[in-house]
Design brief:
Length: about 190
């Protein structure tokens, strides 16, 4: 079972790395574009247990895997169990401490699990994006799946990405969420 989880983490890191690279190299069109990351750039992977890599060794987390793939420092700033309100309160300190050029924002799952309401999660995610963008930090938004019949992120993630012109990844964590449900016997 553990090798399946490791494979999913590596696939997640690869998809995110490819997204970061592809968007950084995009030259035109309506797709959001990232600025080129200098070799000394810091990437802040910010979120909850999905970012932390709960259940895996630190070097198996997606931030660690991504760091080895893109050759940039990737800070793993995931806190298991954290809801968006807590993450919003924590984000300014993390931005001050690490001065990232790029923020990978993957948060919201615990709001959904605790049934805190999508409006609160949406407002907090939007505020985190505004905070980072206000400091000149590029953001890649990673949708977190909402439990239900289909394991997919709520539509508000795509709306925020469109509103701010952000690169958005909606499938990678949904795949991991579905895999976790399969492993638990729920699917």
């Amino acid at each position: 079972m553990r090798s399946g989880v490791n494979t999913l983490r590596l696939q997640s890191a690869w998809r995110i790395a490819l997204l970061v690279v592809a968007l950084g190299l995009a030259d035109c069109g309506e797709r959001p574009k990232l600025a080129h990351l200098p070799s000394d750039a810091v990437v802040l992977a910010f979120g909850d247990s999905l970012t932390y890599g709960t259940g895996a060794a630190e070097d198996e987390s997606y931030p660690a895997q991504l760091e080895s793939l893109i050759g940039r420092r990737v800070v793993r700033a995931g806190v298991p169990g954290e809801v968006t309100a807590q993450a919003l309160a924590r984000l300014p300190q993390m931005l001050d401490e690490h001065s990232p050029r790029l923020l990978l924002l993957c948060i919201g799952g615990n709001d959904f699990l605790r049934r805190l309401g999508n409006q609160q999660a949406e407002a907090n995610v939007r505020a985190m994006v505004k905070l980072a963008r206000g400091r000149g930090i590029d953001v890649v938004l990673i949708g977190t799946p909402e439990p239900g019949i289909g394991v997919s992120p709520p539509a508000f993630y795509a709306g925020i990405a469109k509103e701010f012109g952000l690169p958005y990844e909606e499938g990678v964590m949904a795949e991991r969420g579905a895999e976790r449900l399969r492993q638990s016997g729920a699917l």
